[in-house]
Amino acid sequence: MATLDELKQQFAKLTSDYANLIATATSEQELRKVFADYGGAQGLVRNLQKHAIKTAAPTEKRNVGQLGNAAIETVEREFSARLSALEEAARRRDLERSVDLTLPGVRRRLGHLHPITLVRRELVAIFAELGFVVAVGPHVETDFNNFAALAMPKDHPARDMQDTFYVEGAPDLVLRTHTSPVQIREMLAHPPPVRIIAPGACYRKDEDPTHSPMFHQIEGLCVDEGVTFADLKGVLLHFVRRYFGETHRIRLRPSFFPFTEPSAEVDISCVFCEGKGCRTCKQSGWIELGGAGMVDPEVFRHVNYDAERYTGFAFGFGLERMAMLRYGIDNIGRFFDGDVRFAAQFQS
Ligand code: FA5
User: Fold this and answer.
1) Given 3-state DSSP classes, what are the helix, strand and coil percentages for the chain, each rounded to the nearest 5?
2) 220 CB under 6 A from ligand 1?
3) 263 belongs to a structural domain
4) Ligand 1 atom 2, closest CA
5) 247-292 residue pLDDT tens
6) How many domains does the chain have?
7) Strand, coil or helix: what is 292?
8) Does residue 292 have its Cβ closer than 6 Å to ligand 1?
């Protein structure tokens, strides 16, 4: 049986060995191992304590136990202090390695509305002022709505003007080539008067710097008693002035669409040179916006409207074309690149 002094020395030796070991431990794992070896349930300090209590005289057991407890407290306290120091060192190393705190922060890039969305919203708002409400139709259309009811029966040569994507296995379904089928849907669903604006995607086998296989149009249709070509011209002029600026003029050139009679191409005075003549307008001073005309009585027949009583005008413009003119974009492909840096330039 060791005396109390001898025991004190034995505990002091253990705690000093322990202190040396944890001071040189360089990882948490190493530290925990040393702690378990000394301060754990089967560690050297507890084993010494257990052994000393067992062999001590009954009157000494209490003192021996307290000596052991004091040593265990020291071991635990030093463990916690060393663990904190190691964690702090690791945190500092991490910070120094991965983050240079002196560098400026990285700004997160926000999403932006697509320029076509901006143009569409603005046009819808302008036509809303004139009492036009928005109508929509599906992208996959029936042959009837896209062609036949618009006075383009099968084998009609005018179908060749719009190179069409057909739906495989469904000869009567097409990807709509224009927004004009929304006219048919609206007139079949409602009796006159009708005053709608129909923006949406269209599809054609077309691809060059100003044509894309998927593009957008905005369709207008106004049917009532006494609607004239002058109304069409007035509405178009109002729209062009509101959208492109008060100084702009329009020109209606005789043209042909099977579903309008008379038909016109709508030109706007060149937005780049203000009508003086430049490369974009090919020195003509005019740029084409889209087609328009008075609704052909043949169309009214297909939707059961009384062509003797009602007249109407319709128009259809390309939204990409409108955005290109408005923002000075020279290649239609930009709209479909999905590059957020492109979209970010056109926030209104
Ligand atoms: C039509 O699509 C007629 N439905 C327009 C219309 C409506 C006339 C109502 C009369 C009454 P057009 O094929 O010309 O017409 O197309 C109109 C506009 O759509 C064009 O001026 C052009 O701006 C745009 N467009 C046509 N094809 C493409 C394409 N592949 N890519 C981009 N824009 C296109």
Assistant:
1) 45, 20, 35
2) no
3) yes
4) 178
5) 889 999 999 999 999 999 999 998 888 888 888 788 999 989 999 9
6) 2
7) strand
8) yes
